[in-house]
Amino acid sequence: MTDIIWQIEQESSNLFKWIDDVALYNQEKVLKAFQHNNVASRHFSGTSGYGYDDIGRDNFSSVFADIFGAEAAIASPAIASGTHAIALVLYGLLRPGDKFLSLSGMPYDTLENVISGNNIGSLKDFGIDFEQISLTEKGEFDIDKISKLLNNNRYKLLFIQRSRGYNWRNALSIKQIEEVIRHVRKFSDAIIVIDNCYGEFVEKKEPTNVGADIIVGSLIKNPGGGIAPTGGYMAGRKNLIETIGYRLTAPGVGTEIGSYAYGYREFYQGLFMAPHITAQALKGSILFGKAFSKLGYETLPLADEKCYDIIRSIKFNTQEELIKFCQAIQSCSPVDSFAVPEPYDMPGYNHQVIMAAGTFVQGSSIELSADSPIKKPYIAYLQGGLTYEHIKLAVRKCIESVSKIS
Predict the structure, then answer these.
(1) 358-382, pLDDT tens digit by residue?
(2) Strand order in the sheet with 378-383
(3) At 88, is the secondary structure helix, strand, or coil?
(4) Pairing between strand 311-316 and 232-236?
(5) Which strands form 191-195's sheet, in the order they lie side by side?
């Protein structure tokens, strides 16, 4: 087993060098943003009540905006999840009678009820129409269909999901996003919103650097560095961020209030660590991908491809293999290693889901975790890993567990 891992590391040296180069670039970017905003220990203190003049909250959002090349940002522990953050953006920017279009197919499963649920306060309930254009079989934007729809319709907002969700496709690269934005701008001045979950710090540029109006994501994924205990963010054009802020709290109040009594040190520290932690997860993704490719399983990205998010898709032959893989991930976790995950009905999903996540922060998918809907094809979606050494140990455990079945 050690020989296989050593061999994979030698084969992957160029990819690892690329990851290290990106991490160094992003670390310098983060450091400069901290310095430019004069981050000091006073910014770590919490506030109570309304949170007027909460300098930790306001400064953290300013640091976030600088890092992501945005005019403004909201990075807040008041946001419960990535789904919550995306919902805030959609509700904040869309009005009854508006239409919005996804250029990357149906968004992640947990957004289905946000978009089209019945009588639960969904966008559909408010008279907001939704359409989607699927990516091509090669996982690329369908430029012909996009052009046709934009020529014949007026959309308020265009939505792109950078990561794969529960789909057998690669994440979208910044180059792909930049090219489709350039094309879209020939036809439309619609607000372009990017679901940036799992993609932060994977490349040197972010979607806001290539023309996106708003990016949105979760602080318990890449930008939280495995330290932030909760939260979400959105960054982009100042006028749009201000409008979204009115949805976060109340019209006329926006981001002027919002306290967090526990303090902000973990958020700042997690953001500072994020480029390095993301690099650890990317190296782990390559290790898992090559190891299971050598065992005969299909994986995405392909064994020698660059990763454009931290997720590794592994396609198993049977439901039993999928479940055993997730259970192996759980068993080598630092927290709740004794637990045995089983498929179960989870709110927001249409199929039973199995989730392995022995994490310090509940549901943190920058930490080593794996999940999957129980349906054909049997694909495990592996993400995260705080240290490459831990991921190496997990690869050994997972290979042993799955090999006993096959």
Answers:
(1) 999 999 999 999 999 999 999 999 9
(2) 298-300, 311-316, 378-383, 369-373, 353-356
(3) helix
(4) unpaired
(5) 72-76, 232-236, 214-218, 191-195, 157-161, 99-102, 129-132
